[in-house]
Amino acid sequence: MTAFDTPVRLTAVAAPDQPDVTPALEELYRGFEEELLVPLWTEIGDLMPAHPSSKASTHLWRWENLRTLADRAGHLVPVGRGGERRAIALANPSLGGRPFATPTLWAAIQYLMPGESAPEHRHSQHAFRFVVEGSGVWTCVGGDGPSGGGTDAVPMNRGDFLPQAGWNFHAHHNATSEPMAWIDGLDIPFQWTSEAQFFEFGRDALTPEECVTPVRSRSEQLWGHPGLRPLSATHATPGSPLLNYKWSHTNAALCDQLALERAGFGGTVEPGHAAVRYANPRTGGDVLPTIRAELHRVARGAATAPVRETGSSVFQVFDGSGVVSVGDTSWTVARGDLFVVPSWEPVSFRSEAGATDSDEGALDLFRFSDAPIFEALHLHRTQKDT
Amino acid sequence: MTAFDTPVRLTAVAAPDQPDVTPALEELYRGFEEELLVPLWTEIGDLMPAHPSSKASTHLWRWENLRTLADRAGHLVPVGRGGERRAIALANPSLGGRPFATPTLWAAIQYLMPGESAPEHRHSQHAFRFVVEGSGVWTCVGGDGPSGGGTDAVPMNRGDFLPQAGWNFHAHHNATSEPMAWIDGLDIPFQWTSEAQFFEFGRDALTPEECVTPVRSRSEQLWGHPGLRPLSATHATPGSPLLNYKWSHTNAALCDQLALERAGFGGTVEPGHAAVRYANPRTGGDVLPTIRAELHRVARGAATAPVRETGSSVFQVFDGSGVVSVGDTSWTVARGDLFVVPSWEPVSFRSEAGATDSDEGALDLFRFSDAPIFEALHLHRTQKDT
Amino acid sequence: MTAFDTPVRLTAVAAPDQPDVTPALEELYRGFEEELLVPLWTEIGDLMPAHPSSKASTHLWRWENLRTLADRAGHLVPVGRGGERRAIALANPSLGGRPFATPTLWAAIQYLMPGESAPEHRHSQHAFRFVVEGSGVWTCVGGDGPSGGGTDAVPMNRGDFLPQAGWNFHAHHNATSEPMAWIDGLDIPFQWTSEAQFFEFGRDALTPEECVTPVRSRSEQLWGHPGLRPLSATHATPGSPLLNYKWSHTNAALCDQLALERAGFGGTVEPGHAAVRYANPRTGGDVLPTIRAELHRVARGAATAPVRETGSSVFQVFDGSGVVSVGDTSWTVARGDLFVVPSWEPVSFRSEAGATDSDEGALDLFRFSDAPIFEALHLHRTQKDT
Amino acid sequence: MTAFDTPVRLTAVAAPDQPDVTPALEELYRGFEEELLVPLWTEIGDLMPAHPSSKASTHLWRWENLRTLADRAGHLVPVGRGGERRAIALANPSLGGRPFATPTLWAAIQYLMPGESAPEHRHSQHAFRFVVEGSGVWTCVGGDGPSGGGTDAVPMNRGDFLPQAGWNFHAHHNATSEPMAWIDGLDIPFQWTSEAQFFEFGRDALTPEECVTPVRSRSEQLWGHPGLRPLSATHATPGSPLLNYKWSHTNAALCDQLALERAGFGGTVEPGHAAVRYANPRTGGDVLPTIRAELHRVARGAATAPVRETGSSVFQVFDGSGVVSVGDTSWTVARGDLFVVPSWEPVSFRSEAGATDSDEGALDLFRFSDAPIFEALHLHRTQKDT
């Protein structure tokens, strides 16, 4: 008899207005089980809710704890071929222990000791790195082949955002004398669930020439000038050709928005709330086909209105302190803390000065989400609660 | 202590080249558990395989068995508000007993008794109906409101394909004296996993005027003429404005392709293999944002080359008989049989005359898949095995 | 001295608020002439009017006269390599005697005697044929090479619309015992002015096999089924893959719209005014990159509201009779009559029964325009006068 | 008798293989004239050439002469409502004395005296300004209304490129004590020929607050950060939201390309030839729907290969000196000189040090063209002569 891999027992009663359980009805349900069938009428509440009601929970991870464990792993667990990366992923408490921050997004702290390299590989998963602290480690993102000539060494410093579209070879190397931590974001859960993943090993080692850290990547030299595109670049890939969005640019853009607001010209999302989206200069669209990334700045003393959105987000506090609310939960957050916002849960922020009480004290939040998936499929909705 | 909803126990050893399990390493893993973290290096084989390796199995459902159970349900289980539809879904044996034919696709037999109606509702899930047998039942698909004026009664007959993009109100009514069965295809699993679902009830009953079955729907009168679009239609929705793709057109297109091939002019996918894709006449693209639908005809005696593709498909045998191979499994199939093709599993067909040995004897296969999701996100691959 | 090819004399006075003409000012204008310069302030009224004010006139050409002259040319002027086509173009009376119906559009009557062929060539100009009377002549449109295998014989009958995107080889052949006339529409003036034209000769003669008239072209067998696209067709060209839009389909679509209106369901542009646009089934967009084509039916006794539009149109009366108004001019029109609507001139129609006073008596108008040019460049506007 | 506005006389003989001129043939041609018809066979050589053969000539305008005449006009001709702008246009010697640099493009020197303003207006023509010398004059580009709140003051300095999409209100003001000159580029000839122009007056005067020159425009504060877009900007217009492409960025991008080339990593179009295209950060595409703009740098001693392209270009020498070749014509050029490249004429450059023989000595060329028109319509071709 063909049957479910896991034993399954259908219940003959469920929805309102269903008939009494008679022997005939029981027999019908046993027939469903034998034929590997499940009726809609017992499942519709779970399958077709009035609005998204996430299987995931909201949760906060403290950066201090992550960093401590990552450092311990740096001393205990080698990085190399097979394991590929010393990356430790956020596992949403309600997703069965899987390393999934949300049903679609992966978020991990990655840690590299002085002199260490993570070997070259490529995968269909779209990825990025965001640096909350430290500097000097670089990543090496290649084109469509594992050749040295095709690679581009990209330095990483605090505040930098480094996207890497799927199927480009890449490795990492720490050329400094200090360990370094950063976060990785990928669409691993989305591709795992929808089953679209491809993976390939590259070279096991980088050349000495490749280990020299440049000041700027070649991608920045070609694509890092506002509103200008190189005539020499002709071929198109689905992701951004700009491989490092340096913090100095991001910070300047946010400062400019708040300055415009102060001058009475708008420019912000709402009072005291500046925000930029990392964009592909080739298309103006999202930086990766499945991942949106943004930096939000909430000026000192300002608060944002709760917003709901189809799909999930992961946030990391880049700077400042304040209070974050997701659904009914609130946390006081500090630099590096990470939290997730499940689908359709309202999220809002309030910037509050911490102990040092500086004059600036804005709350800076890095955010990434799966919104491009839903926008591409005409499934995206957003709602501002008032 | 914050912890996983379900008890989770991480294993300190996994990938090759991992260190011996020392107390320090054990402590590290217990620290991961406490902080809701999971290392990549123990999971990478599952998360990042060389190519998609589906959690789903291939499986065949016999139409005869489905139809018998559906008929029994027709006599035992009422259809109405709450349960909404008398739909009985294929549940892949390897997906935990959930009513998911594949990780992204829902396929169900729906059954309506003479005079019965299924109540009006709408949902973000994209849907279609395909009719393998019977006729006379119609579906009533509305626009963006539950008003009678906005609805369009669409008749259903054998071979007809009826798409219905998300968020349109719709109901069903059987105006004949015979029960009728058809299959429903939706992206329920995809939206359930990615958490994008919205649902709303419509009116509880249709008007008597709405219960008169027309020969052709209004959508066909406006959009059912090849290469012609009405100037009166201005607003765009994400799905096809054509609500019934009648079998007579589909059959004629397939006959034409085989006639072109016989005349030496190509026209087929490969020798003896004609195929059409249902297209949105407003864009030329897929008929639904998340679902592709096609009809394949394998001429008598012909066989197709195995093809692999990112994402999954569900097939229903519309006519003829033959042998179907998915991966290492083969079945002799007959009218109405349904089977699934998991991601990256090779699928091929051979048309073989059954007992009656008629002169025609082509094998006609209706297929739907999740390919538009992957194409929109630049994740689609296909490979012809030779 | 460098100077204008044609003697040019600039006038030193023009716009209001200009200074008196002094010797210094005269000297300035003579300096402009010498340096090949022209000031804006004397030309702005012509160059930048409040709205388009066409250099072209509206004009009506009577089909009877055109046909008579074309027939005379059929007996006096051979068709062959060099002259290429026996096509006689409408020359707008205000465009300097050039064979331009409007500043962007070419319209000509083409005439082929029994047994005659027009030789194969291709050009970047986008083209179509529309058949107002007669049948049996066919056109032979190829792909990207002048080989027999790539050609597709397309029959032509009354009411058929045959698009042919630029740079496809094509020839014509009259296999019947009667002469035949049709109209050609091209973007010759647009490409002549903007200087984008390429042209290449093909073969001088067709093969005997190619001279057999088919009932349907291969393009119709592949692409002539509503909402269905062949899986075998993979490469994309800028124009429609459907090479004949048969009258039976166009007529059915118009009848359906009027039937929907009578049933109280809208479907028409305005009361009594049905209209279809010829569309590319691969994209849903216009049938040619620079030319829009439509068929309008004004039911007997109905009248349309005046409409203005950026860009120009050419109309041909396909059937019926009535009154046409363009700007301040009105004509009573009959089958085959052609007229032009310059940019931003209001156009409207009234269907009136002629002598025979039949029950049908709708006024059928074929129209083509340059609207896709302006839509592609975000320059298109339309306005309904009330 | 209806007839051509201008007397037209058709010639009965033209193409090869045409019949002898008989009285019957003469009568046919007189019939054509009476009916406002022109045969294709006498015109095809002009209308359908093998490749574009421009009606325009190539020509060079010396900046020194332009500037002298503009300055004289500054003292003799007022600027104000009616004449609108003190702009003096290049008139191609072969285009009948019209102020058209090429069949599609307008190029003019605009000149504003200290304290002068040019009044507010808007038009459908797409426009830009490019500054070859001087600084301090600013332009004020508004949104979709003539209100002060919607305007954005944009400073202009040497090397800056300022696009302004059609139908935005704009004015100019010189707040300095020196006259200033810059060049205007528009698609006036294209819209004049295709008849798509709309024009509307705005306010006659600016407010005193609007006359304060800012360091950066608001558009730069919102959109001038590489790869970053503001979340606050939601509505889309067809042109770029970035209103000043500052020289410092353009120069840095060109330096970076040459540095990449020196380091062995490509990055240039060809050896010694760096080039950037001004892009719309919202789409990555051209900065204006009908106009492409680029800056080319030819390193000292380098030369470029001749290139042909559908459509026409206007170049201005921004810096350096060298030799320019267009078709069979060559000129030694200096700062500010302007020249035109007609459709399909090959153009190439050679950088040559002038008298001062500095170490840098690159030849910098600003270029604008009508290429987006042809690309949008699938009519664009380019060819590198070798």
From TrEMBL, chains A, B, C, D:
The keyword Glycosyltransferase does not apply. Transmembrane segments: none annotated. The keyword Oxidoreductase applies. GO terms for molecular function: oxidoreductase activity, acting on single donors with incorporation of molecular oxygen, incorporation of two atoms of oxygen. Pfam families: Cupin_2. It comes from the Bacteria. This is Cupin domain-containing protein. Coiled coil: none annotated. Residues 110-184 form the Cupin type-2 domain. Keywords: Dioxygenase, Oxidoreductase.
